[in-house]
Amino acid sequence: GNGEPFVASDVGAVRDIIPAGMGEFIVLAGDTNSFVQKLNSILILTQSERDLISGKLMTNSANYDVLVVAQRLKKLLE
Predict the structure, then answer these.
(1) CA 58 to chain centre
(2) SS3 of the chain
(3) Which among 46, 53, 51 is positioned nearest to 7, based on CA atoms?
(4) Are 9 and 22 in contact (CB under 8 A)?
(5) How far apart are CA 17 and CA 63, in angstroms?
(6) What pTM did the predictor assign?
(7) What's the N-to-C CA distance of the chain in angstroms?
């Protein structure tokens, strides 16, 4: 991931892969109004707020790098 703030629908494993404290950016599937409201809230973030979110997302996304996941899978299968 590139660390950009996001809005996501609460489907599949979305809640399992986002960093702690980022649940405010998840809306119920099909709730278009909430999705738009959350997008608007992202658009008005200050640069320091965007940087803070970006840092959390970048740190978290490293956990899902293909090499990291492959190593975990290898350990599970051993």
Answers:
(1) 9
(2) CCCCCCCEECCCCHHHHCCCCCHHHEECCCCHHHHHHHHHHHHCCCHHHHHHHHHHHHHHHHHHCHHHHHHHHHHHHC
(3) 53
(4) no
(5) 9
(6) 0.68
(7) 29
Tokens matching residue 5: 């703030």
Whole-number Å distance between alpha carbons of 11 and 24: 14
The structure tokens listed for 37 are: 């409201």
Residue-wise pLDDT tens digits, 25-68: 899 999 999 999 999 999 999 999 988 888 888 888 887 788 98
Residue 57 burial (C-beta neighbours within 10 Å; 0-12, 13-18, 19+): buried
